[in-house]
Amino acid sequence: MNIKTLLYFGFLSPIIFWITTYVCGLMIQDYNHLSGMVSQLGALGTNSQYWFTIGLVISSVLNIFTVIGLYKVCKLLELSLIPIFFLLLYSFLAGPAIIPMPLRLHGIVGIPFPFLMLSPLFSLIIWRAKEQLLKIREVAIFSLLIMLLGFLIFFPDVLNGYFGLKQRFLYIGWSFWSIYLSYRFLQLIDINKKEVEELIY
């Protein structure tokens, strides 16, 4: 699979996640995305359980392919792989999707998932010397700030009654980051087309 195809999955993975959550929300009576947990959409015995599992597993697998594409571009541009490694942690979301709420392991298998917010953070630190080439600083900062809003789940008095919204901040930030990073790396491939032509085609 060529690099460009792998990077396009960076667009598709978030799209599938949001389509899955939206459709599954329609399948549960009176479900509210602003107040309801994401995990409720795939809870044991719900009408949407298996659709939720399938959608999130596909999204997680596509994220792995995206990371492979980003990894290849990083190797070509001699960039540190650490930010890309942390983006891979999104794919741990497949664990809670396969092991539904309220099973005990549901919360355990997804523990690495929130640490994906370290991807934009480390990109700001480690890739700053190549910012003139990468041009990702603004989006990295924006994505990180949106992800950090997810910590509001630990402050019940803030946005009281909007737990679902607070939880989804992490997904929103990841979506912006995944899409823009894939978009920007696709541009970099075109800029360096002569250098990477043999690897793409």
**Class per helix and strand makeup:** mainly alpha
The tally of helices reads 10
Beta-strand portion reads under 5%
Q: Supply Rg.
A: 18 Å
> Which descriptor suits the 3D outline?
globular
Low-confidence stretches: 196-201
CA distance, first residue to last residue:
9 Å
What percent of residues adopt helix (DSSP H or I)? 55-70%
What string gives the helices and strands in order? HHHHHHHHHH
Largest sheet properties = none
Overall number of structural domains: 1
- Summarize model confidence as the mean pLDDT: 93
The number of strands is 0
What does this structure look like?
This protein is mainly α and 201 residues long. The protein has one domain (3-200). The chain has 10 helices and no strands. The radius of gyration is 18 Å and the shape is globular. The N and C termini lie close together (9 Å). Residues 196-201 have low confidence and may be disordered.
Features:
disordered C terminus
Give the topology, please.
Layout: H1 3-27, H2 49-77, H3 82-87, H4 94-98, H5 105-109, H6 118-126, H7 131-134, H8 137-148, H9 163-191, H10 193-200
Helix pairs in contact: 1-2, 1-9, 6-8, 8-9
